[in-house]
């Protein structure tokens, strides 16, 4: 075990991974999302996609302990349940694609998903009214595929909620609950496939410590009166992901 722990601590770029997960925790704490959008592009510089997905989902489970109790009472649980059920079915398809696509291709997809999300939100795309259950199922299904392929479990659902009429508090709670469920689903699939190694678990545990602490800090900063601030904070998170995730800046694995 000590040798394996030392091996995890010798992960290339570990200091940058710690910094990225710390910033992601603060953003996740006060917006309800953003972990993968910050961490995945940075981690993709140093780690292959399978390990990135394993680490981000395992650390995501850790943050749930800090955020889920408050979000549970504020979320629209039935709606989130439909989204999560559809995502559960399609996550294996995303993991299958991840195994078969080159690393740089996955990184381009990460940047593309983030960029498309940002452009739609900044352009002011909005919808009104209620989304039907089949519509929710489609949104959840797409989120599951993208989550399994890239580790970005949130953008599709984030776009759905931020582009609608929901308040910042509702967006935050629903997103936290959905991401918590999807993290568990992806971890379960990775374990079943034998993708999660002891080294991946130890790396995730190492990163979970600063992540848990900064998530609590971010949660303490949240104030529902500043809804506009949180929406633009979300846009900023996505913008950073687009810039840092472009494979043209660094060589892929």
UniProtKB/TrEMBL annotation:
Belongs to the 4-toluene sulfonate uptake permease (TSUP) (TC 2.A.102) family. It is found in: Cell membrane. Its main location: membrane. The keyword Lyase does not apply. Pfam families: TauE (PF01925). GO terms for cellular component: plasma membrane. It is a multi-pass membrane protein. This is Probable membrane transporter protein. The chain crosses the membrane at residues 6-27, 39-68, 80-98, 105-127, 139-163, 175-192, 198-217, 229-249. Keywords: Cell membrane, Membrane, Transmembrane, Transmembrane helix, Transport.
